[in-house]
Amino acid sequence: MRKKELEFQALFEKLQYYFSPEEIENLVNVIKKRNGKIDAEAFQKLINEKVSKEDEEREFMIAFMLLDKDRDGYLTYKEIYAAMSHLGSDLTESEVLDMIYAYDNDGDGRMDYYEFIKFMTC
């Protein structure tokens, strides 16, 4: 990282915002495109995008952990079906299996966290 990027990283860490080096570089590039200046509204928008993304990721993790009843790091059709039934869904076991297979990249018949994220964001 260059000096300007390191300065931004240090500033954000003091504010308890943790950006990756790529995110800091993107911020610096946005500022450069604005002739080295950024107004408060644009700066707030950049921060809000970061916070919103972190909140979404945290909510996905919580949802996954709540569904993963046996805490093995995978969601089975039984775990998903039980949760859907509890929420009043009328999906059949077969429909839940089809849903899992649509996002089951490794073909093990279960959803890991990354497959779950793909399911939730598609």
Architecture overview:
Helices cover about 70% and strands about 0% of the residues. It is built from six helices and no strands. It has helices spanning about 5-15, 20-35, 40-65, 75-85, 95-105, 115-120. α1 (about 5-15) packs across α2 and α4 (about 75-85) packs across α5 (about 95-105). It starts with a helix and ends with a helix. The mean pLDDT is about 85.
Relevant terms:
122 residues; mainly alpha; Recoverin, domain 1; 2 domains; 6 helices; 68% helix; elongated
Itemize the secondary structure elements and their pairings.
Blueprint: H1 3-14, H2 21-33, H3 40-67, H4 77-86, H5 93-103, H6 113-121
Helix pairs in contact: 1-2, 4-5
| H/E topology pattern | HHHHHH
What structural class should be given to the helix and strand makeup? mainly alpha
**Alpha-carbon Rg, integer:** 20 Å
CATH superfamily of the largest domain: EF-hand
Number of domains: 2
CATH architecture of the largest domain: Orthogonal Bundle
- Strand count: 0
Distance between the termini: 34 Å
What is the number of helical segments per DSSP (H or I, 4+ residues)? 6
3D shape:
elongated
Query: Would you give the CATH topology of the largest domain?
Result: Recoverin, domain 1
Give me the oligomer status.
single chain
Largest sheet: none
Low-confidence runs (pLDDT<50, min 5 residues)? none
Helix content: 55-70%
Mean pLDDT: 84
Instruction: Tell me what portion of residues adopts beta-strand conformation.
Output: under 5%
Which CATH top level class of the largest domain fits?
Mainly Alpha
